[in-house]
Design brief:
The chain is α+β, with helices and mostly antiparallel strands. It contains three helices and twelve strands. Strand 6 and strand 7 form a beta hairpin. Helix 1 runs antiparallel to helix 2. It starts with a strand and ends with a strand. The N terminus is likely disordered.
Length: about 180
């Protein structure tokens, strides 16, 4: 095929349709593998919450990498996860009301018993170990996916559309306006 010269003199390749040479069976297998991985990652995070609730320090140490990457957004007095993990103050009771998984990222959301503090944790799980956590307190979070991911490989990023795949639900329970952030995965 020959290219086309446009009015500005630039050479442009003709439109060609890109096709996926994988069979539908191979694609299904990749999607099944991804779903299994997401389930395992979700289970790792749920085991961590169980260990925190039961104050099982050994299990917490097995689940978290020793050099955990921690990031926080919210009022400084609300760094409940860091205080719980370091034992600085009495443990905050984390009881997730929602847990979803997107590849290696697991999002957990909840609030305290009085519904005055909402929290969101975005965990990164690698090979069954939690390597990173982003803690959001009294913050509305929208998670958007940049590109498609199948079996750990990301496809080309669409320029005009990054779909929202998850939005926090409990941040409004405190009865006040909270900042909103977008987490791109």
């Amino acid at each position: 095929m020959r290219g086309v010269n446009n009015s500005l003199g630039y050479h442009r390749a003709p439109y060609t349709r890109l096709t996926n040479h994988k069979s539908s069976r191979e694609t299904r297998q990749e999607l099944d593998t991804l779903a299994d991985s997401e389930t395992k990652n979700r289970d790792v995070v749920l085991k961590l919450y169980d260990a925190l609730r039961s104050r099982d320090v050994e299990s917490v140490h097995r689940i978290l990498t020793p050099d955990l990457d921690y990031w926080f957004h919210g009022p400084p007095p609300h760094q409940f996860l860091m205080r719980t993990l370091t034992g600085v103050s009495p443990a905050f009771e984390f009881a997730p009301l929602s847990v979803v998984s997107f590849g290696s990222t697991v999002i957990a959301e909840g609030c305290d018993a009085a519904s005055s503090v909402s929290w969101i944790h975005a965990w990164t799980v690698s090979h069954g170990i939690i390597t990173q956590v982003r803690e959001y307190s009294n913050t509305s979070l929208t998670v958007t996916r940049i590109g498609d991911v199948v079996a750990g490989r990301s496809a080309e990023i669409a320029r005009s559309h990054c779909p929202s795949v998850w939005e926090s639900k409990f941040s409004g329970r405190a009865g006040k306006s909270v900042p909103g952030l977008v987490l791109a995965i």
